[in-house]
Amino acid sequence: MSKALVLFSAGQDSATCLAWALTRYYQVETIGFDYGQRHRVELDQRPILRAALGAWRGADRLGEDAVVDLRGYGALAESALTADRAIAMAECGLPTTFVPGRNLVFLAVAAAHAYRRGADTLVAGMCETDYSGYPDCRAETIAAMQAALRLGLDRPALRIETPLMRLSKADTWALAHALGGDALVALIEESSHTCYAGDRTRRHDWGYGCGACPACDLRAKGWRAWRAKRA
User: What fold characterizes domain 4-167?
Assistant: First the structure.
């Protein structure tokens, strides 16, 4: 199949998406974003996790990586992920971790890079099943963005693949296991980073994290539900 560009943050979801892409595309490249996130440890984990996934499946498939500086955007779209603010529900009904337009910005920048790199497919970990209510994670948002990018880049073949869109977090763990068995699951547990607090001092069965933020809560509950189904 065609070359794919994976939006890769080093979180559980993007790690699973990269593994998924490596089983489907003849060449896979990655792109990440520094938007001033408080959990900057994920940027430190990117090369570690990427190398591990390359050794797992992509020795001849995993191509170049790019990290884009979007700190100016992150400052404009200030949230609890980019500033010292409490994680809570805002008056608008969305959590304060919502970074306005983040996925739209990421997809636009990734599409521009894919255009130059000759990639027809963007792979991203958006999910509207187990998530925090972010409107830019919804399938209809991604479909609209795909249509806009096709028009704006004059690339009618461009696709945005979101393999996790209809999956729960338990299903995402199950997908990783289906792709690579216990070895891939262990790799994601150990090397990926999801915690909003950027805590890699505490190791749980499901990986590192504070254990209290919404991202840790979703990851832990999904891991436990998946393990319970396997028992």
Answer: Rossmann fold (3.40.50)
